């Protein structure tokens, strides 16, 4: 029988249990190791082990789930271990999980998103790339040009943002442009420039994957693969990055709800890649004084709903550089785990999004302000 009684209360307890976001599925021997296994079926139940449960008791639950044809996803925490049971609900409810030794309670996962839901890994997930961290106490400062235009422009930008303490370098090689007549990016040539900029500065590279046909080339250079706002519901592309071994930066579509964003992340996680950073970048509303309406409320909601890190792109939301700093400050203050901003040595000459790019000459002051607000929120630019 499913214990429907005190769902909210139980969820609060799970949230407080301090479960660490390790994802473990599959064989018994995999316990305690991060595995990349795609999920067949939906994660339906949350099995909370008691504080005194032994590893053997956890393994027993996992073994019984697997014998019944289900999968288990384990999160080990400071105070409790939580097992997500993945499979058909009718099959799962037939297993008397509540009576198993060490099991404290069994709860249904009611949300449509499962693997990315906070309940399944109540501790915040931290994404680490080349020693740079985003999530929990680490604030990511991702900066760089909208688009890689030339080697000089990219290297100049990379050096300036690195010197100011940026933690990753962004730059578009394949650009999703509204007009087919505008600059579409340098493509593979830009990837080589980004590689050089990354090698020189030590900054991890964040760049967008626009088309599954470019996966190999992009993954070869990118340390974090961006899925742009326009592709947030390109489900085949989402599945594709779900199978790569690099973290994914998933931007919210301007017309997507928070739930749709989380479901898009679920598509990636389902394929086995749970290293996902969500990004609020502004949505379409009746308001026309900014390029988009930056939905900072969604950041607070996302922080409640998911264990994944959430960052904000104030550049594309603002559309003009004077607004980038105030929106970035607000993002840090609302609890975002980082920001991604555009910078250019000579924004007036930029081939794309010039009005919103920060001049690299002023980037150090910008970074200082963000560092101070992040510190007030208990976070350090990591
Ligand atoms: C970008 O970050 O380069 C970009 C195109 O942003 P978005 O997908 O949010 O429009
Ligand atoms: Mn841009």
Give an overview of the whole structure.
The protein has 382 residues and is an alpha/beta fold. Helices cover 32% and strands 19% of the residues. The strands form 3 sheets. Strands 7, 8, 9, 10, 11, 12, 13, 14, 15 and 16 form a 10-stranded parallel β-sheet that branches. Helix 4 runs parallel beside helix 5 and helix 11 packs parallel to helix 12. The chain is elongated. The N terminus is likely disordered. It binds phosphoenolpyruvate and manganese (II) ion. The site of phosphoenolpyruvate (PEP) has 11 residues, from loops. The site of phosphoenolpyruvate has 11 residues, from loops.
Question: What's the structural blueprint in terms of helices and strands?
Answer:
Blueprint: H1 7-16, E1 43-49, H2 55-67, E2 71-76, E3 81-86, H3 89-92, E4 103-108, E5 127-129, E6 132-134, E7 138-144, H4 151-163, E8 168-170, H5 188-201, E9 205-208, H6 215-221, E10 224-227, H7 235-242, E11 248-251, H8 258-270, E12 276-280, H9 296-305, E13 310-312, H10 314-318, H11 324-334, E14 338-344, E15 358-359, H12 363-376, E16 380-381
Parallel strand pairs: 7-8, 7-14, 7-16, 8-9, 9-10, 10-11, 11-12, 12-13, 14-15
Antiparallel strand pairs: 1-3, 1-4, 2-3, 5-6
Helix pairs in contact: 4-5, 7-8, 11-12
Phosphoenolpyruvate is lined by residues 146, 172, 176, 208, 228-230, 251, 281, 313, 316.
Multimer state: single chain
Strand percentage, roughly? 15-25%
Termini, distance in Å? 46 Å
- Measured as a percent range, the helix fraction is 25-40%
Number of strands: 16
Order of helical and strand elements: HEHEEHEEEEHEHEHEHEHEHEHHEEHE
Bound molecules: phosphoenolpyruvate, manganese (II) ion
C-alpha-based Rg, rounded: 21 Å
